[in-house]
Amino acid sequence: MHKWEVLTREVLASLFEIKNSGIVWKVGRNKGEFAGTPDSGGYLQVDLRARFNNSSCLVYVHQIVHMLDKGYVPNRIDHRDRNKLNNAPSNLRETSPSHNTLNSKMPETNTSGYKGVVFEKDRGKWRGKFTYLGKRYVTSRVDSAEEANRLLEIKRREIIPDYESIIGENP
Questions:
Q1: Residue 48 phi/psi, 5° resolution?
Q2: 0.85 cut: is pTM over it?
Q3: pLDDT tens digits, one per residue of 103-147
Q4: Which ranges in 41-102 belong to alpha helices (H)?
Q5: Which burial class, exposed, middle or buried, applies to 139 when counting CB atoms under 10 A from its CB (0-12, 13-18, 19+)?
Q6: How many whole angstroms separate alpha carbon 116 and alpha carbon 98?
Q7: Nearest 5°: CA angle at 36, between 35 and 39?
């Protein structure tokens, strides 16, 4: 049985209450305490496998919050502020893989200082690159990372209809 057939809104409401930026246990030895432990990626998860004798009942707090707040769990949930520990309903939104990637943090391996801007060593030039809805977009090659980023932002705004609302205050 799929976990969301077991973990309905009613079942989760009997176990948890949304409080601040997370969920609090309503039952058991942890009653009144915030639920969830960080996984290797930094997202909070709750282990309900033993409680429901179901191996698929290891669930993320943001999924539980979305189910309690909206009544369903979408395929992908985005944290608007990029804070994996902020699971307040107002910080969560249903999203597509493309939109989720746009709102992701800059990779630690980034050397340009701009998300999506890379240096092409063989040509000695900078270029902007991004993928949206499965299609790859690139800018022309330029002499500076700043110029490549400027061109990249223009291209993103041209291609992505709701770009500003996706990135919000997180360019």
A1: -110, 15
A2: no
A3: 778 888 999 999 999 999 999 999 999 998 889 999 999 999 999
A4: 49-52, 61-70, 97-102
A5: buried
A6: 14
A7: 180
Write out the two tokens for 123.
């040509």
- Return d(Cα 163, Cα 4) in angstroms, integer: 31
Cα–Cα distance measured from residue 89 to residue 18, given in angstroms and rounded to the nearest whole number: 8
> Length of the chain, please?
171
Structure tokens belonging to residue 132: 């949206």
Rounded distance between C-alpha atoms, residue 103 and residue 95, angstroms? 10
Report the run of H or E that residue 6 belongs to, with start and end.
Answer: helix 3-6
Q: Is 171 exposed, middle or buried (0-12, 13-18, 19+ CB in 10 A)?
A: exposed
Which residue type does 53 have? Answer: N
Q: What is the spatial distance between Cα 40 and Cα 155, in angstroms, rounded to a whole number?
A: 34
Rg (CA), the chain: 20
Mean pLDDT calculated for residue range 85-92 = 96
State the residue for tokens 């110029």. Answer: 147
In single-letter form, the type of residue at position 113 comes to G
Instruction: Give me the sheet containing 117-120, strands edge to edge.
Output: 117-120, 125-132, 135-138
CA separation for the pair 160, 56 (Å, rounded): 35
